[in-house]
Specification:
heterodimer, A: 114 residues, six-stranded mixed sheet, four-stranded antiparallel sheet, globular, B: 114 residues, mainly beta
Amino acid sequence: AQSVSQHNHHVILSEAASLELGCNYSYGGTVNLFWYVQYPGQHLQLLLKYFSGDPLVKGIKGFEAEFIKSKFSFNLRKPSVQWSDTAEYFCAVTPAGRDDKIIFGKGTRLHILP
Amino acid sequence: EAGVAQSPRYKIIEKRQSVAFWCNPISGHATLYWYQQILGQGPKLLIQFQNNGVVDDSQLPKDRFSAERLKGVDSTLKIQPAKLEDSAVYLCASSQPGFSGGYTFGSGTRLTVV
């Protein structure tokens, strides 16, 4: 069965710092990968997704993620964070080509200092 | 488009009481999911419906949890009797067949069992 591991549980950065959140998955086949964000008091929202093609995926609000198949990784990046990026970020995976359940990582809580 | 609607937003009950949560997915979304998100963890799938049929309920504690989607539209998740460890946010999500856009999540119901 597939699983997702997020390396950092809690990250604290100052505004304008660069961000990279680690995500590794475990699955033997082709996968679809996602990053979801949950702002304080709000519901989960899709930040970006990878299905196929260019392994560098751009999402909303300046976020991007790179799929490295050989490393089973899908790290999330942002060159310069803002205070409004304070949220919890979840990496998720599902087998490709199937309308199937998403497996989530445990999440990384990001706190941006103004 | 209207989002995934869930009610109530908050619920506090005593252990051994029963509780029910309601979800109305996005119109036309055949697949509906219930997730449980315990504080500090990622969402865990409880049950997946395709129209009014159950696709996956392998992680649903069937001795106390039940869910139905009788007409293939809205869904109800019930816990009877509740335990302290059921305190969590219960998320409903829906998706279109073919999984092209990822899930759309509702705002969730925060359950506290005392």
